Amino acid sequence: MTVTKHITARVALLLTGAGAAMCISPDACAQELNCVVEVNAQQVESGYKNTFETLKTSMAEYLNENQWTNTTFSPNERIDCRIFLTVGEYDGDRVKGDLQVQLSRPVYNSTYTTTLFNFRDSKVEFDYKDGDPLTFTENSFENNLTALLNYYAYLFLAIDFDSFSPLGGQPYFDKAATVVQMAQSSGEVGWRTFEDTKNRSAVLSAYTDANMAPIRQMLYDYHRRGLDEMVTSPDKGRAKITESLKAIEEVYDVAPMSVALSIFRDSKLDELVNIYSKAPQTERDEVYKLLEPIYPTDRERLAKIKNPEQK
């Protein structure tokens, strides 16, 4: 399936509500995620190499072979994502490290892929010994590893669906919230509200709290009405992206420390340099003026928006 057909099918499916259709049989529904999993355990003694190879395989199978929704996906419509686990410590079957998680989607009628979500989860801990099965249970807390994978699977779905249809990801944000609520009772790190301004609870709140509503609308306006339009109408699509960026300013005004701002920076600043490389100077100045107070430590990158010729 071409990228054009991919986007067309997804948009039609979401906007017509067909995404809620039940699958007649498991074989009729392709799984939703195409997730590349990497595990770097170089900081751990080499005797555990096989353990972490098995872990990598198990994580990939869990994410890519479970059925996360009732939506029918063809194999080429799967959502592209990546999880990179860096293991810092392995002691008594306890894994400690961090996760770099990324989500992307194709842009209409092009070969370009845009990053929707880029985040480093720095407080990852779970118990695992070689050969432990990973069993999916939706309504109970099985263990912290499966809770982590469930959380990010639902978050990927929620953000991706939001980018195709206004607030289209709500069912999956709700499922991610259920995972967080169950995990908070486990005592594991990274889940508790107010424990950390950049933990998993904070990331979920960055998309679901009422005062963060502009972020979710921006997901749709920036991607569906902006990037997807740029191939056929560059000026029109770019103008919609420019308008959508006001959401970042709104969020900054009410929550200047929100993790949503750093997620946007890590996902989009470099892309914006390319988007505005052929924009009129007035438009480049407008975007620079909006973003510079929010990201003062990124002035060098932002300056390339204002002046694309700058090295």
Structure description:
It is a single chain. By secondary structure, the chain is of the alpha+beta class. It contains eleven helices and four strands, in the order αβαβββααααααααα. Strands 1-2-3-4 form a four-stranded mixed sheet. Helix 2 (49-65) links the parallel strand 1 (33-40) and strand 2. Helix 4 (170-184) packs antiparallel against helix 5 and helix 10 packs antiparallel against helix 11.
What brief labels describe this structure?
311 residues; 16% strand; single chain; four-stranded mixed sheet; alpha+beta
What topology emerges from the helices and strands here?
Elements: H1 3-15, E1 33-40, H2 49-65, E2 79-91, E3 94-106, E4 113-127, H3 144-164, H4 170-184, H5 200-208, H6 213-230, H7 234-244, H8 246-254, H9 259-275, H10 281-291, H11 299-306
Parallel strand pairs: 1-2
Antiparallel strand pairs: 2-3, 3-4
Q: Which of globular, elongated, flat, extended, rod-shaped describes the shape?
A: globular
Widest beta sheet: strand line-up: 1-2-3-4
Distance between the terminal alpha carbons, to the nearest Å?
39 Å
Number of helical regions: 11
Order of helices and strands: HEHEEEHHHHHHHHH
Structural class: alpha+beta
Oligomer: single chain
Helicity, as a percent range: 40-55%
Strand content: 15-25%
Overall pLDDT metric: 90
Instruction: List how many beta strands DSSP finds.
Output: 4
What Rg do the Cα atoms give?
20 Å
Brief overview:
This protein has 311 residues and is of the alpha+beta class. It has helices at 3-15, 49-65, 144-164, 170-184, 200-208, 213-230, 234-244, 246-254, 259-275, 281-291, 299-306; strands at residues 33-40, 79-91, 94-106, 113-127. It starts with a helix and ends in a 5-residue tail after the last helix.
